[in-house]
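Reply to dn_fold:

You asked what the input looked like. This is it:
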Amino acid sequence: SGNISASGDIIVVTGSFGKVGIGTDTGVNALDVLGVINTSTSYKHGGFTVLSRSSNNTLLQAEGANHIRFN
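and this is what came back:
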């Protein structure tokens, strides 16, 4: 079990396992999402932009990224 608290625009979830599931109650990672993740501009990993969308809706892969795999 865990605790949820909110302050302004920030929601904090704490628990003994340190895992959050959105759309699932069986998450195994720090954050597991079952469903669509919608972002309006970019996706970051480790603070670095991995994917972004240009002003003409072109999907841009980050410089230095080796490949993008879609399942």
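Residues 51 and 63 are 10 Å apart (CA to CA).
Hope that clears it up.
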